[in-house]
Amino acid sequence: MGLTDFLNPVKGFGVSFHQMFMKSETVQYPEVKKPTAPRFHGRHQLNRWPDGLEKCIGCELCAWACPADAIFVEGADNDPDERYSPGERYGRTYQINYLRCILCGLCIEACPTRALTMTNEYELADDSRESLIYTKEMLLAPLREGMEAPPHEMRLGDTEEDYYRLGLQPSDDAPTVPSEGGGRASADQAAKAAKRGRSRKGGEGK
Ligand code: SF4
Ligand code: SF4
User: Fold this and answer.
1) Is ligand 1 within 6 A of the CB of residue 103?
2) Which of 61, 47, 54, 37 shows the shortest CA–CA distance to 92?
3) Which ligand places an atom closest to the C-alpha of 114?
4) Family, per the entry (predicted)?
5) Which CATH number fits domain 44-200: 3.40.50.1240, 3.10.290.10, 3.30.70.141, 3.30.70.3270?
6) How close is the Cα of 168 to the center of ligand 2, in Å?
7) Among 39, 101, 134, which residue has the most ligand 1 atoms within 8 Å of its CB, making it the best to mutate?
8) Is-contact 160 105, C-beta < 8 A?
9) 55 CA → ligand 1 middle, Å
10) What is the pLDDT of residue 67?
11) Above 60 in pLDDT, residue 79?
12) Ligand nearest to C-alpha 112
């Protein structure tokens, strides 16, 4: 055994000794919660258009993309008298099984309407299997100012083209697609359009 081999255990203790004087990284969770990275993959959310209609069109692409078979979607046709999304179809049943989900994000990449995104919420533990199957009602984004709970008519603009153009806004849950003239439809424009739509329809459906 050479001299360097003899010193190896001493070097090992040196690492432990060095660590004793380093600043502790312990976080007193759950009393203290460290913010996650902005793009952390947490609980999913089903987003809405600025008038409150659902973005999900029940296409099932998210379910097909999921490697863990954690998503169940059942689409249905929109009835003009009972509309849940601006298109022909909407997601009648939507479930995510968090016992299976590995929070990989493939489902949100597959979604063609940005209906499905992921929040930073990571506190998903529970003590019953049933409560870890999240339903559509649990996943839907809350109604923000200017939104109205579906079913109701399309309230943004006079035509479908207006609807989709004014519905786009530069936020986390909506794609930022340039509008006509090179600018972007702002949240303000969308809110104004929603207001116009409501007044045109005599404030019905609240
Ligand atoms: S995050 Fe991954 S595992 Fe979870 S539902 Fe989406 S595709 Fe499936
Ligand atoms: S969340 Fe997106 S991909 Fe999944 S069914 Fe709805 S529209 Fe389709």
Assistant:
1) yes
2) 54
3) 2
4) Belongs to the complex I 23 kDa subunit family.
5) 3.30.70.3270
6) 17
7) 101
8) no
9) 18
10) 98
11) yes
12) 2
